[in-house]
Every structure is written in C-alpha cells, then in structure tokens.
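> forwarded from #structure-qc
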C-alpha cells in the first residue's frame, strides 16, 4: 500500500523536461540555466516554461540558454538575447514598461470601472421612487363595472 501511495505521489509531481544530455557539468551554471529557463515561455505549448516543456523548440531554447551561459553571458544578457530573437512574448512575466503598461493596467482599471458602475446602479435603485399606481380612468372603471355586473358571467 505504501509503495502504491509513493508511486502516485511521484507521478503527481511535475516532471521537468530537461534531458540528461542538456545538463551542464558546472552546478552553478546549471542552476542559473534552470532559473532562466523557468521564466521563459515555450512558444509551442504556451503558458508552460521551457524547463517544463517537451517540445523541440523548448529543447532548442534550453540549449541556447546553456550555450550563452557557457560563453560567459550574464543572466540578463541571456534573457535579453532570447527576447531579441523571439519577442517579449517569450517571457512568462512580461516587463512593466511603456508598451505593456496598458496590458498590466487594463485588468485593474476594468475591475474598478465595473465596481463603480455596480455601486452607482445599486445606489440609484435604492433612491429611486416606486412608480405610483395609476387608478383606472372613468371609462375603464365603467367597462369593468359592466363586465362584473353581466348576468351571463355566472
């Protein structure tokens, strides 16, 4: 029973797609490569880092990251190189600058606008007067009396 539970727990953990032949000999460089590739999006799988993806392009990107690190690039230089080649979409967490500021602020702005409209609607409903009940006109009352007094109605 314990073995089955252990197997299920191991199967439930995310499996990293890094192949043994990709791993660098230097553990410090490998750790840096893992940190960088954890923040880069797989362009095939979407919303999955290249560290987790099994796609061929993700493998190529992992190898490119490691190649740049071996050449002596800093983490920032590696990320800048990848972004220059593939665009800012490759970042799982895009930067907050002029071109993406609208995207970052659109969600909270729309949330606040929706809350403001909801509050205005509720307040408007609370202060609105109930419509006055209009009585029947003399003509309508006469017709109603005629219908109610009709002997055939019984």
């Amino acid at each position: 029973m314990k073995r089955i539970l252990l197997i299920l727990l191991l199967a439930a953990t995310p499996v990293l797609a890094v192949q043994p032949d990709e791993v660098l000999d230097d553990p410090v460089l490998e750790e840096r490569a893992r940190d960088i590739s954890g923040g880069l999006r797989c362009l095939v799988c979407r919303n999955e880092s290249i560290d987790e993806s099994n796609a061929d392009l993700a493998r190529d990107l992992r190898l490119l990251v490691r190649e740049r690190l071996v050449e002596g690039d800093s983490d920032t230089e590696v990320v800048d190189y990848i972004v220059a080649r593939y665009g800012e979409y490759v970042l799982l967490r895009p930067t907050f600058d002029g071109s993406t500021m609208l995207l970052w602020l659109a969600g909270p702005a729309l949330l606040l606008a929706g809350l403001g409209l909801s509050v205005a609607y509720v307040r408007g409903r609370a202060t609105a007067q109930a419509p006055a009940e209009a009585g029947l006109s003399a003509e309508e009352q006469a017709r109603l009396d005629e219908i109610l007094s009709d002997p055939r109605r019984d």
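QC bot note: The CA atoms of residues 115 and 124 lie 14 Å apart. The mean pLDDT is 83.
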